[in-house]
Amino acid sequence: MNLDPKVPDGPLEDKWSNHLEHINLVSPNNKRKHNIIVVGTGLAGGSAAASLAELGYNVTSFCIQDSARRAHSIAAQGGINAAKNYPNDGDTVWRLFYDTIKGGDYRSRESNTYRLAQNSNKIIDQAVAQGVPFAREYGGLLANRSFGGVQVSRTFYARGQTGQQLLLGAYQSMMRQVHEGKIDLHTRHEMLDLVIIDGKARGIVTRDLVSGKIERWMADAVVLCTGGYGNVFYLSTNAKNSNVTAAWRCHKRGAAFGNPCYVQIHPTCIPVSGHYQSKLTLMSESLRNDGRVWVPKDQDDERPPNEIPDEDRWYYLEDRYPAFGNLVPRDVASRNAKMACDKGMGVGKTGRAVYLDFRDAIERDGRDTIEEKYGNLFELYENITNENPYEVPMRIFPAVHYTMGGLWVDYNLMSNIPGLFVAGEANFSDHGANRLGASALMQGLSDGYFIIPYTIGNYLADADLASAGKDHEAFDEAAKNAQDHIDKLLNVDGDKSVIEYHRELGQIMWDKVGISRSEEGLKEAIEEIQDLRDDFWKNVRVPGETTNYNKYLEFAGRVADFLELGELMAKDALQRDESCGCHFREEHQTEKGEALRNDEQFSYVAAWEYQGVNGELKEKLHKEDLDFEFVKLKQRSYE
Amino acid sequence: MAETMTIHLKVWRQAGPNESGSLVDYTLNEVDPNMSFLEMLDVLNENLVEEGKEPVEFDYDCREGICGSCDLMINGNAHGPRPLTCSCELYMRNFSDGDTVTVEPFRSQAFPVIKDLVVDRSAFDRIIQSGGYVSVKTGQAPDANAILVDKEDANTAFDYATCIGCGACVAACPNGSASLFTGAKLAHLNRLPQGEPERRERTVAMVEQMDKEGFGDCSNYAECEAVCPKGISISAIAEMRRNYMKAVFAGEEA
Q1: How many CB atoms lie within 10 A of CB B45?
Q2: A363 near A355, Cβ under 8 Å?
Q3: pLDDT of A155
Q4: Low-confidence ranges of chain B (pLDDT < 50)
Q5: Which of A55, A137, A211, A279 to mutate to test the interface with B (most CBs of B within 10 A)?
Q6: pLDDT at A333
Q7: I need a surface site. Which of A14, A261, B181, B233 has the fewest CB within 10 A?
Q8: Domains in chain B and their CATH numbers?
Q9: How far apart are CA A288 and CA A326, in angstroms?
Q10: What are phi and psi of A214, to 5 degrees?
């Protein structure tokens, strides 16, 4: 397996511009001869589809939702980072790069992360030009705020709905190209397989979710922008339809899966209330700018939170990390919440929650200021919990939020399958073992607006593409494969529901492949997942038919894939016998309980090659060594 | 509040676009008041699957009120009884033990039923395609602070831009008008300096597309504003009409 990252030579700050200077171009006349498939319409897919169409390529775009505007990027609340240094607080591209690579615990590629920081400013320019209504100062200039893991204010925001506004900007640009006839858009279509001809990605097979029809689509390149796989945990902050199927089916066709065990657990979510719970709701991390996290010092303290005086409260983040306080990175905040609850100090009915208190911020800034900053989040919280956070502290607990792992890509965002590009959360690049807040939107848009449009031309300019049609045997095989899988699901005819399997898988993942992991737990998880998968294929009940709208059937296919992915995640977490970022192995921690890296042995990307599944999932580990030429590896510290 | 409740449901079942549909009765016991409305429907579906029956199809995704997928007519109200709430953000504590609750799709000539509670809202996408954007290509943008935007204008534009495209406005309108949806996008973009150059063309194109899709006219019932989960003001509609009149009749180039 060829895992050459193809990082250009030269100083860090010149790599991307040098690369652009030497990259192959496709002339305007030839662009219109190329068809490109873009799967997914979130920030990465929407921005890539729009930008490629603007350049003159013929784009065919797919999404599983009923409209391209509903992709899960829409739910991102807090903001988007850029190194504009508008607040004059000393921010630079280097600092944004350094914060991101340090935040990722030195497990990402320097060159990719640096380019992300370089592109950040152009994203803000582009979004403003599209009419994205970012927050502004009275003078009419853009406003900024700070976010976890950094000491400057570089986050641009649109109240608590930044993802929505950025996505609508990308979606509207996309709709303009649909109107121009440059994008052929197919909603309610799910990608079920990748078609490879002569070793190159040449098309996909989809299912029309309304008619159930299996369809074939041919192209010169495929761009996968299908998001992350957090729903392997069943309960997560991801939208219910978010899934790994498109990426997983590419993996089964030979695309390497990078760092699958890197999962971000977000520290500020609304706690679980009952068995019926179908998803978890995130409260933006920006709340930690003004909210103070605490638990009662005495675990038997029965007083209502407001009657507990300061001396009886343990502000554990401020106490343990005086320099960053409540703004420590997400992984540190999540682990500490778990630590407090594991000690029996958790609050609320279940004891699986900590307080996030705005009392002091309201006293300091006034209720109006807090309401302007967080009004919609406070309303969201009150509606779900029936408690008013202006008056009583919020109860929060960590939840699975984002997956840093994903399909392996080189510097051009191309996977090891020529012609298959992967952008946004679906790829593994940029965030290492932990993603800083307000960086996901940045990465999705950097990939889609400012990287893919160039690098895809570089590929197409000298790709020697065989002339083939949709009747090629590779299409026959993929279409049959997709239909067989569906028939197999419908024919099991067992008596256990898809949701029950998903819930059980999620529990195994949360307990043993979640916030903290151990060799023993991971080995158990692997066996338990194998047993559950085995049982699934014997006893699952999928109602309805294949030929019409059938959400249970869609979910069954996705859960089947999660049942394989879960095992790979556990295997990856097991081989990574160190702690780094979000990957916390109990065997490897500092005296203070922080993640203890082992750079000598584990400074690499784990890229897995699928080799079949037969009771056990067979995967071969390949390693891409991470060379740190420009930053010095340090023990991450936020004290 | 009762520990758990019994809820009687009347749910619209329709096998396909060309089939006739009807309300079907179901009863759910042990409904937790802290369940969301959609989680209650999940439980109903799990029961139906266990009984070997077909589950009720309904659209949902984010389940936190931002994607705009969910679209239920609950007891005759778009998104149910609670103001400023999507179907997915409605909790069962808003109902009482023993209540009968009717669940139907968002009905409109322009939103054909696909199955059960699922409708086709692609007409909204086509309205945006006709002009709901700023014509700027990737890479053409000047520095983000090069053009000042009045804070009030930015805030008002944001208020209109929060539309999630759910279609409640259409479902609630006696005329099935999409004026609030269309007006909101126009009020967002037309107000900003970035959107001003295309104001006239955009307004005319979007209003005409709205008509083509088979949505009705606005007669100022204001039902749309009452059900909008994002609280979008019908001032958007007045603004849209003003801009449209100016473009078409006052000699402004369309």
Answers
A1: 21
A2: no
A3: 95
A4: 254
A5: A279
A6: 92
A7: A14
A8: 5-115 (3.10.20.30), 122-249 (1.10.1060.10)
A9: 6
A10: -85, 125
Cβ-defined contact of A176 to B145 (cutoff 8 Å): no
Contact present, A10 and A194 (Cβ < 8 Å): no
Bridge-based pairing of strands A35-39 and A221-224 is parallel
Contact status of B138 with chain A (Cβ, < 8 Å): yes
A68 to B125: CB separation less than 8 angstroms, yes or no: yes
Residues in chain A with CB shorter than 8 Å from the CB of B138 are: 47, 50-51, 54, 126, 173, 449-450, 453
- Look up residue A303 and give its amino acid: R
Predicted local distance difference test score (pLDDT) of residue B251: 63
Q: Are A509 and A569 contacting, i.e. CB atoms less than 8 angstroms apart? A: yes
Query: What share of residues in chain A are helix, strand, coil (percent, to 5)?
Result: 40, 20, 40
Judged against a pLDDT cut of 60, whether residue A148 lies above it is answered with yes
Least CA distance to A68: which residue of chain B? B125
pLDDT at residue number B32: 95
pLDDT digits (tens, 9 = 90+) for A326-381: 988 888 899 999 889 989 999 998 899 999 999 999 999 999 999 988 888 898 89
Residue holding tokens 């930044």? A162
**For residue B139, with 0-12 CB atoms within 10 Å meaning exposed, 13-18 middle and 19 or more buried, which class applies?**
middle
Q: Which residue has the tokens 């989680």?
A: B39
Task: Indicate yes or no: CB of A70 within 8 angstroms of CB of B67.
Answer: yes
Residue A102 to residue A638: CA distance in whole angstroms: 11
Of the candidates A69, A125, A543, the beta carbon closest to that of B144 is on A125
Question: In this model, does residue A440 exceed pLDDT 50?
Answer: yes
Q: Which of B52, B56, B15 is nearest to B37 (CA)?
A: B56
The gap from C-alpha B91 to its chain's centroid, in whole angstroms, comes to 19
Q: What is the ipTM of this complex?
A: 0.97
Pairwise CA distance, residues B89 & B91, whole Å: 6
The CA distance from A461 to A483, in Å, is 35
Whether residues A129 and B140 touch (CB distance < 8 A) is answered with: yes
**Is A636 part of the annotated catalytic residue set?**
no
Which residues is A184 bridged to in the sheet? Answer: A60
Q: What are chain A's domains?
A: 29-198+220-260+402-462 (3.50.50.60), 265-400 (3.90.700.10), 474-603 (1.20.58.100)
Tokens 């999932």 -> residue = A617
Tokens of B9: 């449901």
Place of tokens 């103070």: A292
Q: Does residue B234 sit in helix, strand or coil?
A: coil
**Which H helix or E strand runs over A510?**
helix A498-512
Query: What CA dihedral angle connects B74, B75, B80 and B81, to 10 degrees?
Result: -170
Q: How far apart (Å, rounded) are the C-alpha atoms in residues A394 and A353?
A: 9
Cβ–Cβ contact A70 with B under 8 A: yes
Are B34 and A135 inside 8 Å of each other by CB?
no
